[in-house]
Design brief:
This protein is of the alpha/beta class. It is built from 5 helices and 5 strands, in the order βαβαβαβαβα. The protein is globular and about 50 Å long. The chain binds flavin mononucleotide. The site of flavin mononucleotide has 14 residues, from helix 1.
Length: about 170
């Protein structure tokens, strides 16, 4: 059994990116254990090198680091804000990267969903750069879903399921 940690990049309660991870988890190969981590993990103060996190938040962050380090791979679902990743996600990555960077040599898959015709692709290009900078092995294919309505099209479901299958092989 392989363990994947899925990170939602949006704090929004009804986040489409969170829902995309949920869709992936329901359809992924049964040999994969996909754990979607809480959106509240991202709810950290803006990193200021002059300040430290409270003991409680720091402990949570260290636990989260351990979770990432022990995982076989990560999927990040990032919203696109002004052509880039959300500030909350970037801040979370910055906090995690301090001292011991848990993303080094980690296999990472990137997905996004947005109402724009590109489905968040521009944000994922930035996220790819950031993760590569941290030494991650970023899976070459993206899934960028353009959606404003309630359900995925047949073609979108096929894209998402192909990604899930290919990423599962990538981490095996
Ligand atoms: C500050 C801001 C900037 C945004 N910029 C973009 C953008 O550049 N491209 C895009 O496709 N959507 C953009 N959006 C719309 C988001 O894609 C949309 O709100 C989406 O639902 C966010 O993801 P979520 O549902 O997972 O929270 C932006 C939204 C906000 C709040």
């Amino acid at each position: 059994m392989k363990n994947i940690i899925a990170i939602p990049g949006s704090l929004r309660k009804n986040s489409m990116n969170l829902e995309l991870l949920s869709f992936i988890s329901k359809n992924i190969n049964t040999k994969i254990n996909l754990m979607i981590t809480s959106q509240s993990q991202l709810d950290l103060p803006i990193l200021n090198q002059d300040h430290f996190l409270s003991e409680k938040l720091n402990q949570e962050l260290q636990e989260y680091k351990k979770l990432i380090i022990s995982s076989d791979g990560i999927i990040i679902a990032s919203p696109e804000y002004n052509g880039s990743v959300s500030g909350a996600l970037k801040n979370f990555i910055d906090w995690l990267s301090r001292d011991l960077n848990p993303f080094s040599n980690k296999k990472i898959g990137l997905v996004s969903i947005s109402p724009s015709p590109f489905g968040g692709l521009r944000g994922l290009m930035h996220l790819r750069d950031i993760m590569m900078q941290l030494g991650a092995f970023v899976y070459p294919g993206n899934v960028c879903i353009s959606k404003n309505g309630s359900s995925y099209s047949e073609q979108q479901m096929k894209l998402i399921n192909n990604f899930s299958e290919n990423f599962s092989s990538y981490i095996s």
